[in-house]
Specification:
Helices cover 48% and strands 16% of the residues. The protein is an alpha/beta fold.
Length: 247
């Protein structure tokens, strides 16, 4: 099984929203990534629409279903009423539930399962009835996957921010990588699919994939767009896929 790349285009939308103009186009840049070989697109429509707007989500799902059969849309967000209604309306391939507060800059911690057991069981049941796969954002802690399985998740996405953040400290990087690896193996033992995301780059992906070749998907936004500023959107797809063994 090769790990597949889903490109998060939130940063594209954030740049567009700096002006009252239609560029850079979220669908246009997504097309470039998909044409270059990305397996899908990830977006996180926040309540204030500071980057991805609900119209973007609808435009993306229309584009994918019309022009890219077999490619996926992952919709990421906190399961409030508005987000749940959007998920039920568009029926993305995957819904990633994250425990974000409304004002957070980015997702930076996994679910507290004890505090959110009833919430998660309820929203997962609703989303599965609508036909979408469900993933839950978890900290790199091998105790977490069994809890995700217990509430009904299909997959977890391991928060790899702590691993990506220690790029200048080789010893700490090994420690953080070991935490991610242990969490991935615990998820496999619990019968869950494994995704990963946050601060992954062509430099730190090879070590991760070598240790956890059964990761099904990496969702990359900030690191991807930073790389694309140098190499271009299409070339960065190639670079990330080569780093994870998808090419």
């Amino acid at each position: 099984m090769k790990t597949r790349l889903s490109v998060n285009v939130n940063a594209v939308a954030a740049l567009r929203n700096r002006r009252d103009l239609p560029w850079p186009s979220v669908t246009g840049m997504s097309r470039i990534a998909l044409d270059a070989g990305a397996k899908g697109i990830t977006v996180h429509p926040r309540p204030d629409e500071r980057h991805i707007r609900r119209k973007d989500v609808r435009d993306l799902v229309d584009m994918l279903r019309k022009d890219y059969p077999g490619k996926e849309l992952c919709l990421e967000g906190y399961p409030d009423n508005r987000f749940m209604a959007l998920c039920e309306e568009i029926k993305p391939d995957q819904v990633l539930f994250v425990p974000d507060l409304p004002g957070q800059t980015t997702s930076d911690h996994g679910w507290d399962f004890a505090a959110n057991d009833a919430l998660l069981r309820g929203v997962i049941e609703v989303i599965k009835r609508s036909g979408s796969r469900v993933s839950l954002f978890v900290d790199p802690d091998p105790a977490q996957p069994a809890k995700a399985a217990a509430v009904g998740a299909d997959r977890i996405e391991i928060y790899t921010g702590p691993y990506g953040a220690c790029h200048s400290d080789a010893d700490l990087e090994k420690t953080r990588l070991a935490e991610v690896v242990a969490t991935a193996h615990a998820a496999k033992e619990a019968g869950l699919g494994v995704n990963a995301g946050h601060d992954l780059t062509p430099d730190n992906l090879p070590a991760l994939i070598a240790e956890v070749p059964f990761i099904r998907e990496v969702s990359i936004g900030h690191g991807f767009v930073a790389d694309a500023l140098i190499h271009g959107f299409a070339k960065s797809v190639e670079r990330f896929q080569a780093a994870m063994g998808e090419r």
